[in-house]
Design brief:
two-stranded antiparallel sheet; single chain; about 625 residues; mainly alpha
Length: about 625
């Protein structure tokens, strides 16, 4: 009973915060808004810790029977197992830190109460997504975070560009969600259930490469492509930077964008049965990782660099999943949550100090003015670059190790992507915090470190970015891989259907050391190159008006993907919509208007018969009676 209550409280507590601040956001005192909004996530995190400490095995809690049609039943139920516990710790832990940070960042905003309410609602739907015991409850959370992302990205809705960015995120996510929904329908038809336990138990009896399973996994992956920003449904994510910085951290780090990864790992049995889908996933993942990383090399907006970094890192996560390295993919989800949340919140601290300036060409030398932000940002940069012994090194190395066993070409491309990651992150660090200050004198006078509500989350995340990798240290380095051991039961059915894929690694320790050395070496080499360019030679990015070489121009304009989509999708659809509008206006409206005109004119003429003369009315009655009699007796003959 106590466990059921804890499980129920986890999503309920943020929901209560949303209801209080959402209904009373104009009336709740400003000092109370942040406390109410943060209390829910913190209490939910405490409940998750209690569940984690007392966890002995999977627990399923049925709240009520929701949909029943004959023998088909969909309960509204929660499932707490090893995978959902890891995700709950990440979502509530990092989510709570972002809520605390938001108190300092958004306190003086006119919509402060509404913003905190939306954050709570976002967290509630993300918890539903993670905790659901079936695909339908997951889909409710899936759609809910999509709605909240729309509300949060377009939060400053007086700016048309921000509204367009929110609409773009909403529409592109709906494209992916259609694939996810069709996948759920196919699961219903194939297995007669949407409950994870029932679906996976039945699926384990299917042969590898079964066409039905392949179709299901491809459709589910389309959903993951939309939510987790993979080619071709990735362009909404960089535009999502229109939202306040805490939103960027919440969407990009620990919650929404990792939903696709979670869904694939949750459905690992189905994907293990579908090697074709995994191959397609691997190709899309490495293409996404490289494309986004290459764009990040030349961006000058501090948040845009981090946005493309997120897209690239999501590609790495899917790359790990594509070679059935499910634990390594989840490991990178965890470490990425730490250092990417830290990077976004650090960027927010910089933007806060720079009076909302986001162009790194107008920064420089900020480490003297923002020491806490600088040191924590440095830690996160080292972590994401994959330099040992920080968190990103262990998770990225584990992914690359699995990829090396599977496909050497993919591994080479992955290492190239890793080099680019290190370069653009240290480029960002050096241009922002080193050299001379390039902003206005007025801005320099007002530079200051952020308040404690913003710096304390930075310090906590910095510690996690340092130690986060030690949760899954490889055996070659004398570790015990605690995360892999904890998650192992989640993959029991996958091991059953494809034992060869889950056997012992074929790599010797010397080969593992070599792979670690190469990935670390290229990251450090990229660091050195960035240092030479931006510290020693003091190279600065060019102004937007300067003509760039062809390659640099293509990268700076993001391969013109948005323009391509606009030309081949947006404009034709708008043209078709205009044609339908014209058809409706001139044909349908014309018919309606002509009919109305005819009735009006006829009634106008008939109205003239009403003269008010009794003699005329008697005459009309006599004529009418005569006509009726004539029709009755003479027409039939």
């Amino acid at each position: 009973m106590q466990t059921d209550l804890l499980i129920l409280l986890i999503p309920l507590l943020p929901l209560i915060g949303f209801i209080i601040n959402g209904i009373g956001f104009r009336k709740v005192p400003t000092g109370l808004v942040g406390m109410l909004a943060t209390a829910g996530p913190l209490a939910a995190f405490a409940c998750v810790l209690l569940l984690f400490n007392n966890f002995t095995g999977p627990v399923r809690t049925v709240l009520f029977d929701w949909i029943t049609v004959g023998p088909f039943n969909i309960p509204f139920a929660f499932q707490i197992d090893q995978l959902s516990l890891i995700m709950l710790l990440i979502v509530t832990g990092v989510g709570s830190l972002i809520h605390i940070y938001s108190i300092g960042y958004m306190k003086h905003d006119d919509g402060y109460g509404k913003f905190m309410a939306f954050l709570n609602l976002f967290l509630f739907f993300m918890l539903l997504l993670v905790m659901g015991s079936n695909y339908v409850v997951m889909f409710i959370g899936w759609e809910g975070v999509g709605l909240c992302s729309y509300l949060l990205i377009g939060f400053w809705n007086k700016n048309t560009n921000y509204n367009n960015a929110a609409r773009k995120a909403f529409v592109m996510n709906r494209i992916g969600d259609l694939g996810f929904l069709l996948g759920i329908f196919m699961i219903m038809g194939a297995f007669g259930s949407v409950e994870y336990h029932d679906v996976f138990e039945q699926a384990a009896g299917f042969p590898i490469g079964d066409p039905t399973v392949v179709a299901i996994t491809l459709l589910l992956f389309v959903g993951a492509m939309g939510k987790s920003a993979q080619i071709p449904l990735y362009t909404w994510l960089p535009d999502a930077m229109a939202g306040p910085t805490p939103v960027s951290a919440l969407i990009h780090a620990a919650t929404m964008v990792t939903a696709g990864i979670y869904m694939v790992v949750r459905s690992n049995v189905l994907y293990t049965l579908s090697p074709v889908t995994l191959e397609i996933m691997g190709g899309i993942a490495i293409a996404t990782a490289l494309l986004a990383a290459s764009i990040g090399l030349v961006q000058n907006d501090i948040k845009k660099v981090l946005a493309y970094s997120t897209v690239s890192q999501l590609g790495y996560m899917f790359l790990g999943l594509s070679v059935m390295g499910y634990t390594s993919g989840m490991f990178h989800v965890m470490t990425h949550a730490f250092f990417k949340a830290l990077l976004f919140l650090g960027a927010g601290s910089v933007i806060h100090a720079m009076a909302d300036e986001q162009d790194i060409r107008k920064m420089g030398g900020l480490r003297k003015y923002l020491p806490v932000t600088y040191w924590t940002f440095l830690i996160a940069t080292i972590a994401i670059s994959g330099i040992p012994p920080f968190a990103g090194f262990f998770s990225k190395d584990e992914i690359l190790m699995h990829v090396y066993e599977h496909n050497k070409l993919l591994w080479v491309l992955g290492v190239i992507g890793s080099a680019m990651t290190s370069f653009y992150m240290f480029r960002l660090l050096f241009l922002t915090f080193f050299g001379r200050f390039r902003g206005s004198e007025h801005t320099r006078e007002h530079l200051h470190e952020s308040p404690a509500t913003m710096t304390i989350p930075l310090l906590v995340l910095a510690v996690l970015s340092v130690i986060g990798g030690f949760f899954n240290v490889p055996e070659a380095l004398g570790g015990n891989a605690h995360l892999a051991e904890f998650l192992s039961p989640i993959f029991d059915l996958s091991r059953k259907v494809n034992p060869a894929a889950f056997g012992e690694t074929l790599l010797t320790h010397s080969e593992e050391y070599m792979l670690m050395g190469i990935s670390s070496g290229v990251a450090i080499l990229s660091l050195v190159v960035a240092y030479v360019l931006y510290i020693q030679r003091v190279s600065l990015p060019e102004a937007d008006t300067v003509e760039r070489p062809v390659v640099a121009k293509v990268l700076y304009n993001k391969y013109y993907i948005d323009e391509l989509y606009d030309a081949i999708i947006v404009k034709p659809i708008r043209g078709l919509s205009d044609a339908f509008y014209s058809f409706g206006e001139f044909i349908i409206d014309g018919i309606v208007n002509v009919t109305a005109w005819g009735v009006k004119e006829t009634s106008g003429q008939l109205r003239k018969l009403q003269t008010g003369s009794i003699g005329f009315y008697v005459f009309a009655m006599v004529v009418s009676i005569a006509a009726i009699l004539w029709l009755r007796f003479f027409i039939r003959f």
